[in-house]
Amino acid sequence: MGGVPLTDDQSTEISISLDGRTVSAKPGEMLIAAAERAGTYIPRFCYHPRMEPVGMCRMCLVEVDSPRGATLQPSCFIAVSEGMVVDTTSEKVKKAQDGVLEFLLANHPLDCPVCDKGGECPLQDQTLAYGPGESRFIEEKRHFEKPIAISELVLLDRERCIQCARCTRFASEVAGEAQIDFAGRGEQVEVATFPTEPFSSYFSGNTVQICPVGALTATPYRFTARPWDLDQVESTCTTCSVGCRVAVQSSSNRLTRLLGIDSDPVNHGWLCDKGRFAFESVNGDEVDNPAGQFTGEARESGQFEAGRLIEPQVRKNGELVAVSWGEALAAAAEGLSRAKSAGSPSSVGVIGGARLTNESAYAWVKLAKGIIGTDSVDAQLGDGLPAELVLGLPRATIDAACAAPVLITVSGDLREELPVLFLRLREAVLAGTALVELSPGNTALTALATATLPMRPGDAPVVARALCGDDAATATLSSHPEGSAVSTDALTAARAALAATPDGEGVVVVLGRPSYAESGEVVAEAARVLAAALPKATFLPALRRGNIFGALDMGLAPGLLPGRVSLEAGRSWFSSAWATVPSATGRDTAGILASMAGEGEGDQVTALILLGADPLNDFPDRSVAEKALSAGHFILAVTGHPSESVIGHADVVLPCAVAHERPGTTTNIEGRVTRLGHKLTAPGFAWPDWMIATELATALGTDLGVGSANDLADEVHLTAAAYAGLTPAVLHSDVAHDGILVPIVDGFVGRADVEPIDPVALPGVESVERQGAPPRSGAAEGDGAVDVRAAALGAAPPLLSGVSAPGGDVAHVAPADNYALRLVAPRRLYDAGGTVTGSPSLASLIPPLVARANPYDLDRLGATRGDQVRLRSTRGELVLAAEADSGVPRGVVAVDFNVPHGPDGPANAVATLIDSRQPVTDVRMESV
Question: Is 737 a residue whose pLDDT tops 50?
Fold first, then answer.
């Protein structure tokens, strides 16, 4: 945004005269941007490099020569042209700047000492740098009631607003949610919401950050600190897997706020509100039993605290009691050893790990697979996709997806699951990318899509075949009792879009998990169909858990070893690096829990390690999770927050550091590795995860072989093939300021130039120092990285590549009948997970749980919106309010995943209906 698109004949640079010197500029770019690249800063308020220019504030006026002589023109609104002569320092320009600032301050309150923006305010800074020094206005300033809450998270001080329209433009242009606009005339102009549409955006915090004055403030930060009191570090948000770059700010060892940093390949400076405000859960701010998260034994025990776990605990006489680290580690080692001795290494299972850093994930994989010897390890809690498929598909980047001629999404609503990815893709679609949606319901991108192909549970492979030209698949879709959910017009439009891309060249498929009431193998089969039909297409996996891709890369999945290497391919390599390697592929989360519940085959899992996981609320099938955790087996929990599974069932609890309390790296959906800033000291006696793994190995009578996080980083790049060459020196250099895509390919040369942060585009983060030292002398960091990779690999095992051909048992989903509805369980951004429920500002935003069905199905039942309906499955039943949704296909009912049902119900109510043993879950809906 913010410029004229370049065409092929505009590839060369042009020359302009700027304040008497000749500088180069890019054809079509705005004059204000060209001047800034040339080292000349032009003051501005309304201009933002990630939004379309509007020329409203007039602060950026400069003199530009024209046939009529030099005239004042807004530099943010005119494109450069060959031979343009520009003067930014003339007396006429200075007088214009004086006038603009004098008028802005005529009504602006001089309350800088109590304003949250004071000390980082562009109006304050530019008044001192470019203003007149005094005002000729002596009249009373205007006054408004303040603050006005325009949302749960944003407060408005109307008298401070300078009408730059940054907030309204962001809401409309970037987020696509025009829920705020200007109202009134003259000096009574103010930002206002619509009476029937509150400012309920998932991206409202961005309007606060880009506001150049203190008109918009965030409720979690308001009056909590001053900028000069804050300590800052650059890091990566791990609330989801997009990997947005952030400035993490704290005071007195408490997080105060997170601000977005403009990482060009990833987030463009934007954050979702969950990522921005979930820092409250790190602080351990208390919420009284949020969303009914803890029930039954956990609540009755009186041991629930909404804050943090700060000391080791061991269950004695049915109660968790605080103990020393030595006693807790001894109890953990004794429980694991007893299970292994009574059965085999596969009697130990590990669930979780997506919240770990890459280095900690490697440490736990080495402990589980290289010391204990179990391969029953899974970071995906039954809500992901087959790991070998995710790692084997040709990977796309976010930039590649945004530049694709055709974008195919096989996922849920990306706005709910990966919000900043949604913003990037929305921008691309508006710019001309053809979007083909395969989704079980309407999404935030549906209105922009070239074609939307609704898919009922179990139909994803069939819809994919139909999309790729299989008419037999089209006929199969029509055999449903309610007919095909895919219209002929939509299918024709989708096929026409793909016809322009031979073999899928340039096509990017965004692959997620549309519903947790449907087996991941169903979506995996659809991916195989698309990969076979579009051999030149690339895939961008859209799994949502924070560092799930780093966890999978490190081997936290059955059948995998660190570095995207299969167990069999890497057996010889890792046998020489580790003490042992599992003898056979282990169980995933579903298999581990089924074994603990007595439903599996082979050696029963009798000891379970939970790495930040809460199976009772994370796993889709609560019935299986309850049986597993209540079976009396040994359970070790390594976590920083309490949960129902931990409080009610763990035998040993080891408190760990959480986000922003530990250094390391994380890997995003593209395979981009970025650094995590260490900002806080973990509370109480909490330890980093890798240290717990190391000490537990010692308690088990062996040695993990590492003494620090740096030792782990060194071992990762030496043993994990996909991370070869990713040395700490590379990660700490400027070449990695936007992260490094792995595996590093031959010929890679990263950009070592770090662009300065625009203090007006991103107020509040201008003082954040870029992490890392300058590149070392000698070869460029990119070349050095390639050299190290070649030396480190040697005869390393091959990386996973490619996927199996489509056509497995998953295709045989039982046909739907006339009486049952297929259950869809999509994700919502605000759910009952610990990140939201542990953040007071977000906990109240969890939506009510309803049963969404097509109006046709509600009419058949004789129900209307708001009526109570009962949903029955083979697992249980729920009584919910009905909601008519024409975006839900006929024969389908949608109930949000991990959303509580009332204060006394389970946090993940729909999990009481889902049967994980079946590829799809059928329910009966009846009136109450």
Answer: yes
